[in-house]
Design brief:
The structure holds 2 protein chains of 2 kinds. Chain A is α/β, with parallel strands linked by helices. Chain A has helices at about 1-25, 85-95, 110-115, 120-125, 155-160, 240-250, 275-295, 300-305, 310-320, 325-335, and strands spanning about 40-45, 50-55, 55-60, 65-70, 75-80, 100-105, 135, 140, 150, 175-180, 185-190, 190-200, 205-210, 215-220, 265. Chain A folds into 2 domains: about 1-30; about 35-130 and about 145-335, Ribonuclease Z/Hydroxyacylglutathione hydrolase-like (Metallo-beta-lactamase, Chain A, 4-Layer Sandwich). The termini of chain A are far apart. In chain B, strand 9 (about 190-200) and strand 10 form a beta hairpin. Classes of the chains: A alpha/beta, B alpha+beta.
Chain lengths: ~350, ~300
C-alpha cells in the first residue's frame, strides 16, 4: 500500500511539476491531464473492475451494466445494482473500497440488468429502511438502518410488472421512494445528489443522477459508448427522448478547459467520458435521426431506410447485426419515433 | 569522486555485498541509463512545415481526402461534415486530437525529461505546446495501460520504449477525433505508433495510425522539427467559448444532407472525384493507370457535351 501511495504521489508530483513548468505562475494550479488514467486507480476483483471516477464516486464495471458507487462517512450510495446473479461480485467490489453499509440505491431505469440486484443487496444490508412494525429477531428493527431504494415512478411500474422485458420485482427489492416530477434531490456523503427525470428516453422512467460535489453524472442507458442506445417503445421510449437526455447532460456538464476534463459522465456501458464524448454521441444520434426523418418524409419505407446505409459511418462503432439490439432494430425505433408524411 | 560518494550513500549496510554493488553503481552512473544515452528528444523544437504545408497551416480543402487510406464509413462521415459544427459552443474550444495534432499547426514543441527525484530514473517525457494544450505525457517507466473503461482523452495514453536509435511511442485511449482538419474521422479504437528519429539537431517523427473503424490500412505520415533556442510554444491555455451564432439552440447539429458529396476540391483542381475520395488503392503507383483512364473518360465526356 505504501508503495502504491508513493508511486501515485510521485506521478502526481511529476504531473504537477509539468503543469507548473508549462503554465507559469498564473496557471500553476492547473495540472496536465491524465492523472485519472493512472492504472493504479483500477482494482479488479472477481472479474469486476473498480475505477475511481472523481471525488466520492467510483465505477464498478464488468457486469451486465455499469454500477456507480458514491462512498463516504454515511455509507454507500449505489446507482443500479446489476443483473441477476451479479450481487456477490458487486458487493465484493464495494467492499474493496469501503466497509461502510449500502444506504441508498437509485435505479436509473426499470431495465432488469440494472435492478435485479436490488433484492439481494437490500437484504444484505438489513432490509428496506423505514417503519418496521414487525419483530425482527425478537426486537423491533431500527428505522434508520437498512437501504432506501429510489426510482422514478415509471421505472417502478416496469420493475413491478411481470412478463417479458420486466424485472418482476416485489417486496424490499422494489423502490420504497418514487417520484413523478422532474427532479428529486437528496443529500448523501456531504454532497447534493440530484435525480433528474429524462422523459420518454430509453423508457418512460429514466433518470440521470448528478453528484454535484464530485461533479459526476451517472447517465444510465441515456449514454452508451459501445452501442446505439436502447429504445423501448413499448415502455415509452423514443429517439427524441434519448437525444433530449443527451442535451440535458451537455447542459449540466462543464469541461475544465478546452473540452477536456471537468464533469465526468458515466455511461451504462463502456468508458467514462466527459462532455466532449457526450457531444459526439449526441451528434451521431441527431444526424441519424434527421436523416431518417427526411427519408420518411420523402415516403421511404423502413426497409428502404435500413438498406440505405443511413448510419454506415457509425455502425462499426455502435452497431450490431446479432444480439438483442441490432442496428436494424435501432433504426426501426428511430423510424417509428420521427414524423413522416 | 561523485560516483564513490553516491554509491556509499546507497550501499552502506552490507560490506560484503557493497563492493560488487559499488562497482555496479559506478558503472551505472558513468554509463547513464541506456535509454537516455541512446535517445534523448528533450529540448525546444521548431516545426518545419514545408511538407504538406497547405494541409498544416490553412488546413486541407473541403473534400480533399486524397492520399488517405480511408474506408467507405470514413468517406461518408467526411462527405457529410459541415464546418459550421465548430461554431457550436460545445465544440468551438476543442483541441486537436492526438491522431492529428503533431501535424498542424506546427506545433513548436518543448519536450522535457521528467525524472524520479529519488532515483534519477527517467519516468516520462512531457511534450508541450500543441494546439489546445492537451499536452502529452510519454510514460517511459513501463507502466501498464489503463482499463478499457477508463476515460479517453484528446492526448491519449502514451508509453515509450527505445529501440536502437528510435523512441517508439504507442498511444491508446484517444477520443473520437480526426486525422485531417476537414472532417476525416479517427475513432476511439485507433492505436497510434510513433517513431521519433533524431539526427543531431534534426528530429523526425513517423506517425502510424491503425484504425479498425475508419482505415483500410495503416495511415502513415512524417513530420519534422529543428532544435531551436528561439521557439514560441503555443501559450493559449484556455480557449474562450463565445456565442458565435445567436439563434442556435442546444441540440442543433450542423451536417450536410444525406447523400452529399464534397466535390468542390475535385472540381476546383480539375481532378477526377474518385482520386480525391481516398481509399488504399489511390495510395500506390499502380493507381496512375487508373487515374489516366479517369482523366481520358472525363475529357471524352466533356468533348461529347461540347458537340
Amino acid at each position: 500500500m505504501n508503495r502504491r501511495i508513493t508511486r501515485t504521489a510521485r506521478a502526481a508530483a511529476l504531473v504537477l511539476g509539468a503543469g507548473l513548468v508549462l503554465a507559469g505562475p498564473a496557471l500553476a494550479q492547473t495540472p496536465v491531464g491524465a492523472v485519472s488514467l493512472d492504472p493504479e486507480e483500477t482494482i479488479t476483483i472477481n472479474g469486476m473492475e473498480v475505477l475511481h471516477v472523481r471525488g466520492n464516486v467510483y465505477l464498478i464495471a464488468g457486469g451486465s451494466a455499469h454500477v456507480v458507487m458514491q462512498v463516504g462517512d454515511e455509507g454507500v450510495l449505489l446507482v443500479d445494482t446489476g443483473d441477476s446473479g451479479e450481487s456477490e461480485r458487486i458487493l465484493a467490489a464495494v467492499r474493496a473500497v469501503t466497509h461502510r453499509p449500502v444506504r441508498y440505491i437509485i435505479n436509473s431505469s426499470g431495465e432488469p440488468a440494472h435492478v435485479l440486484g436490488n433484492g439481494p443487496i437490500v437484504e444484505t444490508y438489513g432490509g428496506a429502511r423505514g417503519p418496521r412494525p414487525q419483530q425482527v429477531g425478537g426486537r423491533v428493527g431500527n428505522q434508520n438502518s437498512g437501504v432506501i431504494v429510489i426510482s422514478h415512478e415509471g421505472a417502478y411500474n416496469r420493475m413491478s410488472a411481470s412478463g417479458a422485458g420486466s424485472a418482476g420485482l416485489s417486496g424490499d427489492a422494489l423502490p420504497a421512494s418514487t417520484f413523478f416530477t422532474a427532479k428529486k434531490d437528496i443529500y448523501s456523503n456531504d454532497e447534493a445528489v440530484q435525480i433528474i427525470h429524462v422523459p420518454s428516453a430509453y423508457t418512460e422512467g429514466d433518470v440521470l443522477v448528478f453528484f454535484r460535489g464530485s461533479d459526476v453524472i451517472a447517465a444510465g442507458e441515456i449514454f452508451n459508448t459501445t452501442g446505439y442506445p436502447l429504445i423501448d417503445r413499448e415502455h415509452g421510449g423514443s429517439i427524441n427522448g434519448v437525444i433530449d437526455g443527451l442535451n440535458m447532460l451537455i447542459d449540466l456538464a462543464v469541461p475544465e478547459r478546452n473540452q477536456m476534463g471537468g464533469t465526468r459522465i458515466v455511461p451504462s456501458h463502456g468508458r467514462i467520458g466527459n462532455e466532449s464524448d457526450v457531444v459526439e454521441y449526441r451528434d451521431m444520434l441527431t444526424i441519424i435521426r434527421d436523416r431518417v426523418q427526411e427519408m420518411k418524409a420523402k415516403g421511404m419505407t423502413l426497409q428502404q431506410v435500413q438498406a440505405s446505409g443511413v448510419s454506415l459511418e457509425y455502425d462499426v462503432l455502435y452497431g450490431s447485426t446479432t444480439g438483442p439490439w441490432t442496428t436494424a432494430m435501432f433504426l426501426e425505433a428511430v423510424y417509428a419515433g420521427v414524423g413522416g408524411q | 569522486m561523485f560516483e564513490m560518494s553516491s554509491c556509499h550513500a546507497l550501499f552502506r549496510t552490507r560490506r560484503a555485498g557493497a563492493l560488487a554493488a559499488l562497482a555496479a553503481g559506478v558503472f551505472i552512473l558513468t554509463a547513464a541509463p541506456a535509454s537516455a544515452q541512446q535517445m534523448d528528444i528533450s529540448g525546444d523544437w521548431a516545426a518545419r512545415v514545408h511538407e504538406d504545408q497547405p494541409h498544416r497551416g490553412p488546413g486541407a480543402e473541403l473534400g480533399d481526402f486524397s492520399g488517405l487510406p480511408i474506408n467507405a464509413a470514413a468517406r461518408q462521415k467526411a462527405n457529410h461534415w459541415d464546418a459550421s459544427v465548430l461554431t457550436l459552443t460545445e465544440r468551438m474550444a476543442q483541441p486537436h486530437p492526438a491522431q492529428y495534432f503533431m501535424r498542424g499547426p506546427g506545433p513548436n514543441m518543448r519536450i522535457q525529461k521528467r525524472v524520479d527525484p529519488e532515483t534519477g530514473e527517467l519516468v516520462a517525457f512531457t511534450l508541450e505546446g500543441v494546439f489546445g494544450r492537451n499536452d502529452r505525457i510519454i510514460w517511459m517507466d513501463g507502466r501498464a495501460r489503463p482499463s478499457q473503461y477508463a476515460e479517453h482523452t484528446f492526448e491519449g495514453f502514451s508509453t515509450g520504449v527505445v529501440e536502437g536509435n528510435q523512441l517508439i511511442i504507442t498511444t491508446t485511449h484517444m477520443k473520437y477525433g480526426v486525422i485531417q482538419r476537414n472532417g476525416v474521422p479517427a475513432s476511439p479504437k485507433s492505436v497510434m505508433t510513433e517513431h521519433f528519429l533524431r539526427h543531431g539537431d534534426q528530429l523526425t517523427l513517423v506517425t502510424v495510425v491503425d484504425d479498425p473503424v475508419y482505415l483500410e490500412e495503416p495511415f502513415i505520415r512524417t513530420s519534422h522539427w529543428v532544435r531551436s533556442s528561439n521557439i514560441n510554444p503555443d501559450q493559449r491555455w484556455v480557449f474562450e467559448v463565445v456565442d458565435e451564432v445567436a439563434d442556435r439552440k442546444l441540440g442543433y447539429v450542423p451536417h450536410l444532407p444525406f447523400g452529399s458529396v464534397q466535390d468542390a476540391f475535385a472540381k476546383h483542381h480539375n481532378i477526377p472525384l474518385e482520386a480525391v475520395m481516398g481509399g488504399k488503392q489511390t495510395l500506390y503507383p499502380e493507381y496512375e493507370a487508373r487515374l489516366r483512364q479517369l482523366v481520358q473518360e472525363a475529357a471524352a465526356a466533356g468533348a461529347g457535351q461540347g458537340r
